[in-house]
Amino acid sequence: DFLCPDCEEPFQLKSQSHMFGRKIVDAAYASMMRAIQHDATPNLVALHYNPDTWQVMNVLLLPRFVFSASAIEKRPPLGPSARRAGWVGCNILLDALPAEARISIVRGGIVAKPSQVRQLYKDLRPLARLKVEKRGWTLDVLRAIESLGKHEFSLDDAYSAQTQLARLHPANRHIRPKIRQQLQVLRDLGFLRFLGRGRYRLRNTGL
Length: 207
Known about the structure:
- This protein folds into two domains: 1-129, PvuII Endonuclease, Chain A; 131-207, Winged helix-like DNA-binding domain superfamily/Winged helix DNA-binding domain (Arc Repressor Mutant, subunit A), CATH 1.10.10.10.
- Helices cover 30% and strands 28% of the residues.
- It has helices spanning 29-37, 114-124, 132-146, 155-159, 162-168, 175-189, and strands at 2-3, 10-16, 23-28, 43-50, 55-62, 72-74, 89-93, 103-107, 110-111, 152-154, 192-196, 199-202.
- The chain has a six-stranded mixed β-sheet with strand order 1-2-4-5-8-9. It has a three-stranded antiparallel β-sheet with strand order 3-7-6. A three-stranded antiparallel β-sheet has the order 10-12-11.
- A hairpin with a 6-residue loop joins strand 1 and strand 2.
- Helix 3 (132-146) crosses helix 6.
- The longest helix is centred in the C-terminal third of the chain and has 15 residues, at 132-146.
C-alpha cells in the first residue's frame, strides 16, 4: 500500500495489461472483510496499461468508503498442491458498487480534468460520515436504485428491489421500511432529490 504525501490517504495500486472486467482480484478474504468492518480499507486505484507501448489506457479510483461486504466475493480455497494450500482470497465485484463510486481518472488513454475528478470524489465524501454498519445498506440501496435504469423513480420502483436486498441482507426482516429509511439517507447525503408524492431523482446515474 501507499500513502498520499499531500492528504495522507492510504491507497492501493493494482495494475494489469488487460482491461478490468467485472471483478478485481484482491487479497485474503478474511483480511478484506476485517478491513471493511473496521473502516480500514485503502483507496483502490485500478490501472490498465498497453504492454506494447507502455501507455496507461484506463485508471479507475474506488474511494475507501465505497466498499461494502456485498461487493466482496469469497474465492474457493487453494488446493492441497498449492504453495499456500487452503488460503482463501477474494474478488472485488465492480458491478456490485454504485456507478458513482467508480471514478474514472483515465479512459481510453484520455486523462480526465483534475477538477472533475476532485468534484466526483467530493460528491462521494459524505458516505465517509456514515458508520460502517449503516454504510453497507446505503451503498446497496443506491446500487439497487441505479439498476432500475431510471433517472426518476417512484417509491414503488424502489420496492421492486426488495428481493435483491433481502438476499444481500438475510438477517433483516423489514426490507421495505429499510428502503424508505435509506432513501432518506441518500437524499440527506445529496445522492437523491425528493420530488414529492413518492418520487425521487438520482443526482448521477451513469446511464
